[in-house]
């Protein structure tokens, strides 16, 4: 099955996949529950079977939307917080939990260890690194905390943070600094940058001979601003400074390869843009840095130096072993559509969202940059005279639209949204802004 999946990542192969799906010859491949005749609720099997294989065709994405159980009276527009999983992932998680309920023996549970190993392998491949450099944690917050608590900074040494970092990559460092005596420098980005170079320059300006690490959100959850991670990492490397990228808003949305990004550490949640099962995260530590990190938790199964990120930093004692169970299938789902196609689609949804808001609600104030170079999957606006909380509540209560009151009215559409969903959201905002 893996070999078959690996063969299905290119464009022509995607066409072949859908053709085969149509003919039923690989009916159990990418969407196993469908072919197995399992629960079909929330989708139209005929629409799926007649969908075109061309990602430029809106009907392709209508087919994708049918792979989720979100009912038609709701629009999930909050990928930056939490994504639904495709129905076959939900089914897999549910059946795995039920299986565990029947048999908790070591013998039965040996499959979980095997599946965790597979998850590490697939995730590493997906992110362009080795499986020894990947650990499975519970979410990005935990990945960030493992870094903050496990990495030693000496008194007087400096770490540079973006002032839009998530609390788990900001307050956490400040708390640790109180204990350890290192210096936290938080820097703002220019309000209306004209180019990504200006964003890199803001970091360059803050560097001193005492700087040891730069730690930043790849994409801000409160403005949607997207930092040029590769260029910032390149700058840091040229000065012998380590980089930690919080990728909670980039993993599963961007067509990423961490080796290409060149960061030393990376963290993310898999229940956001990756649309994986709840309560999983990824911690990446470049091989040569594993020895620099102290483990936060030590329990049975912990292994000392020379071991992997997962063995050294992610051992948690008894946990819900079923959580990471569906990660390989989640990654297969992404590869079926293609990482680049996913990024392109999310960018197109956001471009239309911005265009329509500008055309229909001229009084809307954009918190997110308008340029596609400096944003990615998140668009945030404010409506004069209304609070984000009020708009957010009305969007859900009146229109079944789930956004977030985060930095403004935060909208983060994903591949389970169609252009028609975007138009419905803009229509609702237009009415609410009056
Ligand atoms: C940039 C960033 N980092 C970390 C997190 C924390 O994610 P989680 O709650 O899944 O741990 C978030 C959540 O929104 C985020 O946006």
What would the keywords be for this entry?
single chain, 434 residues, alpha/beta, Aspartate Aminotransferase, domain 2, Aspartate Aminotransferase, domain 1, 3 domains, seven-stranded mixed β-sheet, four-stranded antiparallel β-sheet, 17 helices, binds pyridoxal-5'-phosphate
Give the CATH superfamily of the largest domain: Type I PLP-dependent aspartate aminotransferase-like (Major domain)
Order of helices and strands: HHHHHEHHEHEHEHEHEHEEHHHEEHEEEH
Strands of the biggest beta sheet: in what spatial order?
A: 2-8-7-6-5-3-4
Overall pLDDT level: 89
**Hetero groups:** pyridoxal-5'-phosphate
Descriptive overview:
- The chain has helices at residues 2-6, 11-23, 32-35, 45-50, 58-65, 87-102, 106-127, 140-150, 171-180, 196-206, 229-238, 258-261, 309-313, 327-337, 339-360, 388-399, 419-433, and strands spanning 75-76, 134-137, 158-162, 183-187, 211-217, 242-246, 265-269, 281-285, 365-366, 379-382, 401-402, 404-405, 409-411.
- It is globular and about 60 Å long.
- It has 17 helices and 13 strands.
- It folds into 3 domains: 1-67, no CATH class; 111-330, Aspartate Aminotransferase, domain 2; 340-433, Aspartate Aminotransferase, domain 1, CATH 3.90.1150.
- The protein starts with a helix and ends with a helix.
- The protein is α/β, with parallel strands linked by helices and 434 residues long.
- Strands 2-8-7-6-5-3-4 form a 7-stranded mixed sheet, with helices on both faces. Strands 9-10-13-12 form a 4-stranded antiparallel sheet, covered by helices on one side.
- Pyridoxal-5'-phosphate binds at residues 81, 139-141, 166, 168, 217, 221, 246, 248-249, 269.
